[in-house]
Fold this sequence. Notes:
The chain is of the alpha+beta class. The protein has a domain at 7-126: Gcn5-related N-acetyltransferase (GNAT) (Aminopeptidase). Helices cover 27% and strands 35% of the residues. The chain contains five helices and eight strands; from the N terminus they run ββαααβββαβαββ. Strands 1-2-3-4-5-6-8-7 form an eight-stranded mixed beta sheet, sandwiched between helices. A hairpin with a 7-residue loop joins strand 1 and strand 2 (16-20).
Amino acid sequence: MRCDADVHVTSPQADIHIRPAGEADHPAICALIPSPEELFLVYPRGRHPLTVEQLASLAAERHALTVMTDGEQVIGFANLYGLEAGSHAFIGNVIVARTHRGQGLGRRLVRYMLDVAFVRHELREVCISVFNDNTSALLLYAGLGFVPYAIEERRHPQGRRTALLHLRLAAADRASEP
């Protein structure tokens, strides 16, 4: 597991921090995903309930595993995968605790992951994939400048058809935000 420097993101509403995830965080990360439906949106290959063992396997193939905390409580998670040095990576497994949604924390977490990709890894492009039912995430990613480049048909665990949209953002197109 790769560890990067602790970055403190302050918020008037809470004591929010973003830092590298460690094995000790795995149970709390698993607890962020309480339902099979949510697990499908965050980690389609996962089996509900998400276990520490599944997360350890995921961690072995991912980069920059990151948690967002409110005080000591883990309230968010994201990582990078498919990292091609100097080229591109995907942001994956983005989740914010239900109790902390609607406060702009998902945006902060994704912006942090973009900084990791574009600044620390000097990538030219970052991609992210999102299911069509995840309206909040689609709007978040579009607001950050991501644009669609492909759509893939998938099957929801309940058997219905769903679309997985693949989005990308070039370093040159990244909007600067305050």
